[in-house]
Amino acid sequence: MAANRDNLKQYIPEEALPYYIESKQETAIHFPVLSFPTKLKTLNLDKTPAFEGVLKGIKGQYLIFDNDTVFNVRSWEGYVVRLTLT
Asked: Dihedral of CA 13/17/22/26: which sign?
């Protein structure tokens, strides 16, 4: 897999190259879901361009926030999203 990854580097667009990680070490990210929402409220960036909340978990492509709001990352491909962690 690592050899294939290195061969594909040449196809990465110039603007995405700063995010390419040279290390062959996998990054394990563990973010348990503290609570699942009872009634989902999907975050719509067109209607709500600014949002604040406490991240309670990550499940697949969904960021789950404290007020039952979920953000589907894949559905907003092409948008520039800025996250601020405090």
From this structure: negative
Whether 82 maps to a domain, the answer reads: no
Q: Which residue has the higher pLDDT, 86 or 76?
A: 76
Long-range contacts, stretch 65-69, CB < 8 angstroms, 24+ apart: 67/41, 68/37, 68/38, 68/39, 68/40, 68/41, 69/37, 69/41, 69/42, 69/43
pLDDT, tens digit (0-9, with 9 covering 90-100), for 42-64: 999 999 999 999 888 888 899 99
Structural domains counted in the chain: 1
7 inside domain: yes
Instruction: Tell whether 83 is covered by a domain.
Output: no
